[in-house]
Amino acid sequence: MLLLMLLLLLCLNINTDFSEIVFEVKLKRKPGFYITNIIIPVILLSILNTFSFVLPITSGERASFSVTVFLSLAVFLTIVAATLPTNSYNVSLLSVFLILMTVSSTLIVDLCLVEARLAI
Predict the structure, then answer these.
(1) Can you tell me the distance from the alpha carbon of 37 to that of 51, in angstroms, rounded to the nearest whole number?
(2) CB neighbours (10 Å) of residue 93?
(3) Which of 35, 62, 79, 108 is within CB 3.0–4.6 Å of 55 for a Cys-Cys bond?
């Protein structure tokens, strides 16, 4: 390809004294994949996690339900960490969002366990 370009330049007697070439590239990211596969399920899991307070305090399902939601959020965090490129300078907003949801789920698990202990 390069040889063809040189031959073309020599045949046409085109002046090749240019010092730079400028390209303009416009890229646009479409976030639909992350919204439908990560953000919406995590929001739904967080909403479900608040419904653990509707279950009876003395039932063991309350704690197991909130722990299950916590584990599923941890799986989402693992998937995002494996998908996104590793960079220690900038943390993605998606990772921060998942960490905040995991922290809130941890607090809900703690509250459920404390309430179950106090109810006995």
Answers:
(1) 22
(2) 8
(3) 62
Give the chain's radius of gyration (CA, Å).
27
Q: What is the dihedral of CA 56, 62, 66, 72, to 10 degrees?
A: -130
Per-residue tokens: 18: 């240019």
Question: The tokens of 94 are what?
Answer: 């998606």
Measure the CA–CA gap between 84 and 45, rounded to whole angstroms.
22
Show the domains of the chain with their CATH numbers: 29-119 (1.20.58.390)
Measured CA to CA, the distance from residue 77 to residue 69 in angstroms comes to: 12
Residue 4 pLDDT exceeds 70: no
Contacts of 5 (CB under 8 A, 6+ apart): none
In the chain, the amino acid numbered 24 is E
Q: Locate 70 and state its tokens.
A: 């916590």
Which one has a higher pLDDT value, 60 or 13?
A: 60
What residue type is 107 in one-letter code? L
